[in-house]
């Protein structure tokens, strides 16, 4: 699902590639929808767009007149952007009160190296920047960018709510950022917080020299506070003793009066600027411009110590020779009686802060040990260190986003506009999303199927946070039961995504992986109920969630069904492509994993079958727990877990492999062709790769063996003592197929597209490399099979530790060598991490693997 979008940050990848992907998206077959329109459909301003909007509104008006009684005044929204009309799960009492206040502030801007905000649509934002060098020029480090080439960064400790410690290594300098929240007598809503930033030379203890330069170098860091709502800030004159005076302050709804203080003990130079700008997505440029202007005027890269009228952004610059350390403190409710600012300030700076940070480290460590018990489970400190980083980056990567998704307008609402016209879309309702992210640099936003895996880990660390995140996702469901699979909310998020990919299609699915964690939670509720100790609020949670899950299940069960009753396929593959070796299936989450060469509605996808079986079983369980009718889910689950039926639809007796079914030929190749662009008369012919089909496709099995073939095993539909089970253990261990010393590869070496490019620029993605989410699912099944009575218990028990060791060994090695967890692991280069990094989304499942928590 996460299409590799090198183009968004890497200028070297071709624009041709981008265009064609955009086209794929645009070609999704329309889904028929009823309903009227429309409140807000004319974003953008070009004449063409306006024309389209007028047409759309015209069509809409027709629907509208037909669909509504004259008594109704509010225009109806199109169904696609109408919320499911049931109570929101995130409105439950358990997410208000104490919980909400505790979670108010956080490092909820994971796309920044250090970014703090509150969980409100318009927040005070805080963040760290520093001066680096990129391509021989000064550059501001601010948003996480792979092109910054930091040697390493990430949270080493983070508890998800009150404390975190991060290290960033950049060009020989180490920045350590510690974040602490605190509630004291006199604090306003959400409490106070402090950030300590330590700046030192990398390897400070060694007396070596770097690049022939002496180690005593100086550097500048910046810290800002910005009012998203645009309210202006008050600045205090720079006193001699900065420690005693606030630097900037203001007043904001909920938290009341606030002050921001800087405290330092070393001799550092402090300057500042007050700026006015309501577009927060280009703060980096704003600060760089301010600095460059000063540079031209004074010859020094130093902020001007002045502020614009009505400044809503305060930037502090702190320069000093390494090492130095500063404490920054945010105090809320300073206008309340008994606020006692000096006392609170003392408690959050200097030695007091030091003491509290040490205490928080200890608390983290104890809780980490209690939760994952790694000391009993893995070899040593090298592994445990990776475990801590995996957890900390996962929970430290949780973000709060607010905004409106853009939704493609279904075809029947559109005029006859030419293909590839400028984007035209509807806006989803304004919504909040609290979610973890796959990668702070490359995918710093919510992804539906990733989130199911993220919550497997987070729910073990802090169940409340997990419940909250799941609630936010389910609340994004529209009246048809659809959830946009990629959440690009707000300008800051959008600034990281090329325009072509922003628009979401209501016909597109994405695996219901949230059901994995929902089932886990339901099983624990079932146990609590049996022991008579179920909490009222857990029951409430499941009851409130239930109608949403029903709508969600039904959406899959109806829109993704196959021609044969009770079968499924991922709808929306491109059947007209002449560029792709095998048309991608982004909706499945496995992007370029090979499917039928010729997409038709005869297709059957075995992974979706298994997801539906798992979802139906989960629904049946929840229905029973909450006293709802469960019969139809049970019947559907029985049908989908019936091995005879599954085998009829997906089992190739000859090879003993589970396969997709469809119109397919193995004889498809990419060939170079010379093409002339008809629009350019004198143009030189271009050489491009085109797909050629050398043999007529036939209906039948799609003989690619890989992760998809292992779904009946991974989701444990194969009974423990069936002969198919025994056969699958042999398949699992076959070195020609998926087994490697670094984990299970995504596609067998025997597949005709193993490690093949899909287009000239589309490198193999799910066609060989090792991915942690699928390894976790398969390993987890292996573990459970090794515990279940049956003929194959012993074999499973033999393979399980081998696969587990392989995964742990490689991820731990790669982390220590490269400083990161990676998107996936390559085989040609002996298990090296590749793709986006840090990728602390599902790769962090390595911690559950270490702790044997399945
Ligand atoms: C989770 O929330 C419940 C109340 O809703 C509370 O009793 C419990 O202590 C919370 N757990 C954590 C880890 O915060
Ligand atoms: C610091 O030490 C590590 C390991 O010894 C080395 O790889 C790295 O290059 C050193 N960094 C600097 C800036 O000297
Ligand atoms: C300072 O912090 C400690 C907790 O570490 C707390 O017990 C004490 O009450 C705080 N002092 C003030 C003035 O709030
Ligand atoms: C910031 O973004 C806004 C809106 O996209 C734009 O108008 C403005 O020029 C940008 N400012 C800078 C400094 O890039
Ligand atoms: C799912 O779809 C199948 C086929 O249309 C239907 O028979 C079954 O009842 C549906 N299941 C549920 C729970 O709605
Ligand atoms: C499984 O499906 C087959 C074929 O549809 C059917 O004959 C059989 O009764 C089913 N088994 C169970 C246990 O429902």
TrEMBL record:
Q: Which terms does the UniProt entry file under GO BP?
A: oligosaccharide metabolic process; protein N-linked glycosylation
EC numbers, comma separated: 3.2.1.106
Report if keyword Signal is assigned.
no
Q: Where is the composition biased (Basic residues)?
A: 25-37
Feature: compositional bias, Low complexity: 9-21
The UniProt catalytic activity note for this protein reads: N(4)-(alpha-D-Glc-(1->2)-alpha-D-Glc-(1->3)-alpha-D-Glc-(1->3)-alpha-D-Man-(1->2)-alpha-D-Man-(1->2)-alpha-D-Man-(1->3)-[alpha-D-Man-(1->2)-alpha-D-Man-(1->3)-[alpha-D-Man-(1->2)-alpha-D-Man-(1->6)]-alpha-D-Man-(1->6)]-beta-D-Man-(1->4)-beta-D-GlcNAc-(1->4)-beta-D-GlcNAc)-L-asparaginyl-[protein] + H2O = N(4)-(alpha-D-Glc-(1->3)-alpha-D-Glc-(1->3)-alpha-D-Man-(1->2)-alpha-D-Man-(1->2)-alpha-D-Man-(1->3)-[alpha-D-Man-(1->2)-alpha-D-Man-(1->3)-[alpha-D-Man-(1->2)-alpha-D-Man-(1->6)]-alpha-D-Man-(1->6)]-beta-D-Man-(1->4)-beta-D-GlcNAc-(1->4)-beta-D-GlcNAc)-L-asparaginyl-[protein] + beta-D-glucose
Q: Which residues form the Glycosyl hydrolase family 63 C-terminal domain?
A: 349-852
Amino acid composition bias (Basic and acidic residues), ranges on this chain: 573-582
Subcellular location per the Swiss-Prot or TrEMBL entry? Endoplasmic reticulum membrane
Alphabetical UniProt keywords: Endoplasmic reticulum, Glycosidase, Hydrolase, Membrane, Transmembrane, Transmembrane helix
How does the record say this protein sits in the membrane? Single-pass type II membrane protein
Recorded metabolic or biological pathway in which this protein acts: Glycan metabolism; N-glycan degradation
Any one GO molecular-function label of the UniProt entry: Glc3Man9GlcNAc2 oligosaccharide glucosidase activity
Looking at the record, the residues that make up the Glycosyl hydrolase family 63 N-terminal domain are 103-265
Q: Which Pfam families match?
A: Glyco_hydro_63, Glyco_hydro_63N
InterPro entries, alphabetically?
6-hairpin_glycosidase_sf (IPR008928), 6hp_glycosidase-like_sf (IPR012341), Glyco_hydro_63_C (IPR031335), Glyco_hydro_63N (IPR031631), Glyco_hydro_63N_sf (IPR038518), Glycoside_hydrolase_63 (IPR004888)
Kindly give the SUPFAM superfamilies that the UniProt entry links to this protein: Six-hairpin glycosidases (SSF48208)
Q: Where are the transmembrane segments?
A: 41-65
Map out region (Disordered) in residue numbers.
1-37, 573-597
Group of enzyme by EC: hydrolase
Gene Ontology cellular component list = endoplasmic reticulum membrane
**Stated family:** Belongs to the glycosyl hydrolase 63 family.
PANTHER family, per this entry?
A: MANNOSYL-OLIGOSACCHARIDE GLUCOSIDASE (PTHR10412), MANNOSYL-OLIGOSACCHARIDE GLUCOSIDASE GCS1 (PTHR10412:SF20)
What role does it play? Cleaves the distal alpha 1,2-linked glucose residue from the Glc(3)Man(9)GlcNAc(2) oligosaccharide precursor.
Q: Which protein are we looking at?
A: Mannosyl-oligosaccharide glucosidase
């Amino acid at each position: 699902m996460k299409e590799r979008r090198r183009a968004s940050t890497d200028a070297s990848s071709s624009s041709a590639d981008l265009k064609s992907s955009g086209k794929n998206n645009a070609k999704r077959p329309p889904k028929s929808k009823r309903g009227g329109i429309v409140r807000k459909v004319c974003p953008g301003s070009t004449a063409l767009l306006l024309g389209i909007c007028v047409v759309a509104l015209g069509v809409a008006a027709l629907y509208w007149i037909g669909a509504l009684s004259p008594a109704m005044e509010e225009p109806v929204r199109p169904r696609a952007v109408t919320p499911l009309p049931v109570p929101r799960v995130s409105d439950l009492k358990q997410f208000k009160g104490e919980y909400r206040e505790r979670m108010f502030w956080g490092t909820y801007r994971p796309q920044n190296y250090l970014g703090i905000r509150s969980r409100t649509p318009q927040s005070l934002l805080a963040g760290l920047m520093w001066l680096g060098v990129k391509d021989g020029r000064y550059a501001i480090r601010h948003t996480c960018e792979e092109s910054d080439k930091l040697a390493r960064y990430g949270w080493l400790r983070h508890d998800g709510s009150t404390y975190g410690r991060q290290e960033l290594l950049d060009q020989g300098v180490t920045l350590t950022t510690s974040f602490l929240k605190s509630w004291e007598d006199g604090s306003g809503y959400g409490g106070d917080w402090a950030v300590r930033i330590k700046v030192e030379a990398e390897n400070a203890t060694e007396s070596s020299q770097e690049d022939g330069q002496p180690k005593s170098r100086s550097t500048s860091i910046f810290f800002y506070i910005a009012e998203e709502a645009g309210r202006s800030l008050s600045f205090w004159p720079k006193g001699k003793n900065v420690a005693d005076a606030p630097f900037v302050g203001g007043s904001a709804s909920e938290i009341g009066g606030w002050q921001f203080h800087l405290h330092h003990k070393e001799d550092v130079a402090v300057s500042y600027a007050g700026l006015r700008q309501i577009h927060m997505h280009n703060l980096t440029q704003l600060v760089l411009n301010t600095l460059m202007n000063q540079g031209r005027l004074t010859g020094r890269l130093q902020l001007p110590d002045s502020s614009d009228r009505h400044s809503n952004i305060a930037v502090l610059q702190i320069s000093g020779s390494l090492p130095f350390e500063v404490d920054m403190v945010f105090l809320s409710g300073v206008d309340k009686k008994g606020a006692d600012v000096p006392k609170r300030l003392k408690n959050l700076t200097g030695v007091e802060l030091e003491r509290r940070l040490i205490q928080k480290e200890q608390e983290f460590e104890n809780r980490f040990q209690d939760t994952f018990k790694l000391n009993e489970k893995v070899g040593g400190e090298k592994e445990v260190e990776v475990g801590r980083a995996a957890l900390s980056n996962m929970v430290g990567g949780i973000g709060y986003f607010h905004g409106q998704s853009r939704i493609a307008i279904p075809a029947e609402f559109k005029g006859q506009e030419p293909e590839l016209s400028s984007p035209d879309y509807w806006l989803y309702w304004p919504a909040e999303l609290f979610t973890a992210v796959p990668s702070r640099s490359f995918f710093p936003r919510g992804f539906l199927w990733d989130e199911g895996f993220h919550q497997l880990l987070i729910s073990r660390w802090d169940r409340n946070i997990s419940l909250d995140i799941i609630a936010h996702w389910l609340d994004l469901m529209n009246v048809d039961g659809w959830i946009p699979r990629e959440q690009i909310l707000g300008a800051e998020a959008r600034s990281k995504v090329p325009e072509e990919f922003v628009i979401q299609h209501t016909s597109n699915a994405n695996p219901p992986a949230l059901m994995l964690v929902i089932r886990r939670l339901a099983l624990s509720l079932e146990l609590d109920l049996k022991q008579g100790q179920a909490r009222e609020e857990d029951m409430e949670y499941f009851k409130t969630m239930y109608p949403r899950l029903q709508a969600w299940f039904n959406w899959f069960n109806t829109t993704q069904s196959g021609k044969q009753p009770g079968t499924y396929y991922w709808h929306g593959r491109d059947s007209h492509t002449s560029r792709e070796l095998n048309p991608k299936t982004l909706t499945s989450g496995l992007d370029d994993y090979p499917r039928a060469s010729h997409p038709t509605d005869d297709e059957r996808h075995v992974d979706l079958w298994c997801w539906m079986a798992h979802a139906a079983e989960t629904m049946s369980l929840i229905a029973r727990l909450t006293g709802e009718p469960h019969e139809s889910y049970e019947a559907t689950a029985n049908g989908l877990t019936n091995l005879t039926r599954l085998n009829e639809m997906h089992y190739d007796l000859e090879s003993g492999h589970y396969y997709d079914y469809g119109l397919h030929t193995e004889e498809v190749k990419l060939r170079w062709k010379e093409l002339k662009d008809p629009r350019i008369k004198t143009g030189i012919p271009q050489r491009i790769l085109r797909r050629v089909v050398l043999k007529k496709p036939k209906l039948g099995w799609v003989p690619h063996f890989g992760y998809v073939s292992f779904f009946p095993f991974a989701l444990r539909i194969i009974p423990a003592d069936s002969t198919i089970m025994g056969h699958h253990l042999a398949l699992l261990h076959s070195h020609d197929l998926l087994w490697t010393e670094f984990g299970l590869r995504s596609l067998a070496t025997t597949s005709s597209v193993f490690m093949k490019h899909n287009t000239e620029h589309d490198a193999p993605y799910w066609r060989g490399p090792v991915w942690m989410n699928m390894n976790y699912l398969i390993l987890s099944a292996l573990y459970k099979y090794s515990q279940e009575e049956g003929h194959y218990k012993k074999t499973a028990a033999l393979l399980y530790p081998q696969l587990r060791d392989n995964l742990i060994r490689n991820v731990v090695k790669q982390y220590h060598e490269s400083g990161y967890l990676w998107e996936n692991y390559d085989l040609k280069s002996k298990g090296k991490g590749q793709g986006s990094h840090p990728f602390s989304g599902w790769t962090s499942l390595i911690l559950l693997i270490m702790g044997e928590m399945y």
